[in-house]
Design goal:
about 160 residues; five-stranded antiparallel sheet; four-stranded antiparallel sheet; 2 helices; 9 strands; about 15% helix; elongated
Length: about 160
């Protein structure tokens, strides 16, 4: 009976240990919003909205060719002129270059804005530019020349 219990415990522990041991990348940084008046012949300095909203996400790291993983964040940020809905998607991609081998990962950061102005921005990045957090600006213009945007950053502003 004791041998059966030990064998059963070993069988059950295998998949759990593999799931826990999957490599992950912790993305940790900040999200800030801003507006900018560009109605005249030149743009004014940006005016801050919400600043230094902490963002922490775990992104799985694919290990085999052709695999990808994603992490997502949805946030509403208050700005003069209306709330800005922000959707962030981060991807880790293992390119398909052969069987069972990950020749090297690359990363993508995407931001979608919706509210007073809509926008879609993206960047394909190497590991050094992506981690510990991608740095990216994204903005859309509303009628009348006012821009509504976000900045992803690594250090508090």
């Amino acid at each position: 009976m004791k041998k059966i219990l030990i064998a059963l415990a070993a069988l059950l522990a295998g998949p759990v240990a593999a799931a826990v041991g999957e490599p992950q990348l912790e993305l940790k940084g900040y999200l800030s919003s801003w507006t900018q008046d560009c109605a005249g012949s030149s743009c004014a300095l940006p005016v801050p909205g919400e600043r230094n909203v902490p963002v922490t996400l775990l992104l799985a790291l694919p290990a085999a060719a052709g695999e990808a993983a994603a992490a997502h964040l949805s946030k509403k940020l208050a700005l003069p002129g209306g709330d800005l809905s922000v959707e962030l998607d981060f991807y880790a991609i293992c390119p398909y270059v052969g069987r069972d081998a990950c020749a090297g990962r690359y990363f993508q950061a995407q931001a979608r804005l919706d509210g007073p102005a809509g926008a879609f921005c993206a960047a394909a990045l190497n590991a050094g530019d992506f981690s510990p957090f991608p740095v990216l600006m994204c903005a859309g213009a509303a009628p009348g020349g006012r821009r509504f945007g976000i900045t992803l950053h690594r250090q508090p502003l």
